[in-house]
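FW: tagging you since you asked about this chain on Friday. Here's the raw sequence from the shared folder, copied in full. Didn't touch anything.
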Amino acid sequence: METSSDRISVQGRALEHPQETLLVGLGLASRVYPAIEESLKSARPIQHTLTPLQAYEFLKAGAWRLEDSGFGVIVPLAF
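HL: got it, structure written out here
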């Protein structure tokens, strides 16, 4: 894996400006699943903690809304 602040290459695929691309994607995803917006209040978001109820709601509905909107989501196989 080759990295720099402006480009990342993994398995022969390159992505320009990965940090900006991720932040833009999170901003768009927050329109579909508003709970994401809270994590974007930080200058450098690294996590967003959910309560057990929020996690359950995300797994039951939020993840599918994101997938239906074109976002990739990885959830445990049980869901």
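FW: The chain has one domain: 2-68.
HL: agreed, and The longest helix spans residues 52-68.
FW: great, closing this out.
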